[in-house]
Every structure is written in structure tokens, then in C-alpha cells.
Amino acid sequence: MVNVTNCLYRVVVLMILQSLVVESAFIYNVLSFGAKPNGATDSTQAFVDAWSAACASNDSTTISVPKGRYLLPSAIKFRGDKCKTLDITFQIDGTLIASSDYRILGQANNWLSFERVTGVSIVGGTLDAKGTALWACKLAASTGCPNGATSLRFTNSKNISINGLTSLNSQMFHIVVNGCQDVYIRGVKVNAAGNSPNTDGIHVQLSRNVAIFNTSIKTGDDCVSIGPGMKDLWVEQISCGPGHGISIGSLAKDLEEEGVQNVTVRNAIFKGTQNGLRIKSWPRPSSGFVQGVQFIDAVMLNVQNPIVIDQKYCPRNINCPAQASGVKISDVLYRNIQGTSGRAVAIKFDCSATNPCSGIRLENVSLTYRNQVVQSHCTNVNGNTSGIVQPNSCL
After folding, report:
1. Of 16, 69, 293, 323, whose CB neighbour count within 10 A is largest?
2. Residue of 128, 203, 244, 310 with catalytic role
3. Which residue ranges run through the membrane (predicted)?
4. Is 244 one of the annotated active-site residues of the chain?
5. Which entry of 87, 200, 221, 350 is annotated as an active-site residue?
């Protein structure tokens, strides 16, 4: 069963910590380090120098980014290994922009990355990665297109807050949380075209105690993607669409893989998305698992696949492994899910032949499809239903 009490407690603690207003002893304005808010002058060094100065402080510090447009054409890595302070706030009132030449940033893995930092908060601001030209290159199947960069990444960090940030047109993922602990994300807006490739809104993996609140995501891939090793995740009040929904996975990429456990998604709205609530794994051996998941109070508005477990995941059916997924999925609750499906099959549980899904529960589910009979499909799954469930359950 999901440890709801523990998860709620940690979320409340995160919210209380973020509500405390501590006046910074030192404020470092990027303009003082030579940044130019004209959108044309490379301000990279000014941001690096401001970070170095903030890190050297023994007290709470704020890096101030006033209104304006700041050109940061290439990747910047903010490292916390040598930071003395454990409280740095990026107060961003302006917009950070990448180069209009996608090749400059496209070869990097990340645009703005934070590694081994503690107590970093990002407040406000807009990141404009100008990814549209790279998407066009990829969509045209042109050769020589770089992979592209994630706009904002936190790695091996703790006590992180992202509040009120807007991410536009990321080349790849918008926000990634990897190997972190105690992360609080609130009021974030993600905006990219519905056909933009691999532009996941928020991706979390190998992390613990992450809370995402009051977030709007419009993108071309998963609104929220949950990778291996994620434990204690709370997502609430999220709007998704366009996009591919909220996905656990894809899993089973590797034979040795950490599991996903204790995930709660509440009060989500999906508008015209490819999927709603999805769990997906490749059909290959894996030590991974999914356990203790709650999907509660979700609204589907013309969603192609409102509820889906796909353990035969193989995009574009290219080089699909002819095996059964080793990922064990258990204890998953769907409660108070309603709205409209874009297809006749509104619930599809396609589980592993060697590791059938177990403990799948449907409670008060009401999905319709164009005034026609809506259907459910089950393969290798065990579970039960309670309350009104429409379509009729195949469990």
C-alpha cells in the first residue's frame, strides 16, 4: 500500500520550508558583473561570476536578475562542491535566452545545470531555449541534427525549490531532476508545440521526496515523466495538454534498474493528450518494479488513451525486443477518474506474461466515447473494482 501519511508529511514540511521568508545577507546583481539585458550581448561570464561570488559567501545570498533579456548562448554548469552557503536564491525577473542558432547549444546535454548543490531556489523568470529550429530539423528527418539540450537540470542535489518559472521551447526536456532529495516545484509553466519531439515537461528519476504543485504543461512529449529510482513523489493540481500525459517510464531500458514506488497524482486535467495516466515498460528483462501508485481525481477531455499500462512499449515498432517485460507492477489505484476518451478502448492494461500486474484497483471511474459503447482491455492483470466503473471492468 502507498505510505500516504509519510508522503503527505514530507510534502507539508517542504511547503513550510518554502514559505519561510529569509532576507538574504548579500545580493549579487548580475548587472554588476557585466550582464547586459539587451538580448544580444553574451552574459554567460557575468552569471558564472555572480554564482562564484554567491558560493563564497557564508550567509544566505540572492543572485538578482533584473528585467530584460539575457543572452546565454551556451551551456552553463553551476557546481556546489565548494559552496560555503547552503542558501542561494536565483531571483529572476527577466528572460534568459539561448542562441537562435540551435547548433551552438544543441551539442550540449544541458543548458543550465546545477550539480551537487544544496539549498538552491529559483524564483520567477523565463527560460527561452529557442528550440523550434531544432525541432524542424528533427521533424524533417534531416541528417546532422544534434540531440539538443535539456533547459534546466538538477543533479545530485538536495533542498531545491523551483517556484513560478516559465520554460519555453526547450530543445529537449524542459526540467530534469536526477539523483536529488527534497525538491519542491510550484507554479511552473511549460510551453512548447504539440509536435515538438522529446520535450518532456518535468522528468524525475533516481530521486526522493519530490513535490510538484499547480503546474501547467503544454508540450510534445510527456508532461511529467517518472524514471527509475523515483521514490516518494507527490503531483497535485496539474494541467496537461497538448502532450503525452503523465507517464511512469519508460522502464526496463536496463537489466539492472531501480524501482518506482510511492507515487501520488491528484487533481490532474488532461486536454487532448495522447495519454492520460500511463505506466510503460519495454518488453525485455529488468529488475525494475512499480509499486504503490495512486491516481486520484483526474479529468480527461478527449484523451486518446485515458488509462493505460503498456508493458510492450516500443515506439514506432522499430527493433522491438521479442521478450516479456521483467518489470513487476503492483498496488496501483485509479480513483475518481472521469471524462471523455478519444478512442473506444478507454482502459487498457497490457501487462507482462511473466510478471502479471497485480493489485490494480478501479474506483468510481466514468469514461465515455462519442456517445458510443466504451471498452476496456486486459491482458495478464489481476485486480478489483468498486463503485461505478464505466467502461465495464475487464479485471
Report:
1. 293
2. 244
3. 7-28
4. yes
5. 221
